[in-house]
Design goal:
By secondary structure, this protein is mainly alpha-helical. The chain has one domain. It contains four helices and five strands. A three-stranded antiparallel beta sheet has the order 1-2-5. A two-stranded antiparallel ribbon has the order 3-4. 14% of the residues are buried.
Length: 180
Amino acid sequence: MPRVSGRRHTVTSTARLPGGRSDPGRHETAEERADRQWTELLQELRVAQTGVQILFGFLLAVVFQPRFAELSAADRTIYVVTVMLGSATAAALIGPVSYHRLLTGRRLKPQTVAWASRLTLLGLVLLFCTMCSALLLILRVALHNSLALWLVGAMALWFLVCWLVFPAWAMARSSRERRK
């Protein structure tokens, strides 16, 4: 349970370690915590932004390929949806940089980190949708059959396992270990 102490508002968290020992956690002010969280968020964004930029660049180039004219109306619709999702994803994952730049020096770092984190989560949801949509388009063109939907469904499930199930499992396991 976090505690606030002193004039600097030092945040201390206490966790139980195996054997009943307690872990005093970090001793940092709200501003120090925000700085640390901001640095961690930037590292996460670098990975996601690179992937989005590569995917979006690919999507923009597709329309200029000669074979694009041969796409069915359904495939063109999937393409347009995918490009719009890619644009929204890029905006959401680049948004925290703008948010930080506009609020720098206004003593709003903890709030900036909170909103940037929310925007990043939205960007990850949009990235999931963009990846599935792009995969659907590619597999429909490559396979010309309903197997494409099954493959996209399987890959969507794999994304969810990697992005949600594994972290949830780690949190549950950690929680069980702390109770021991």
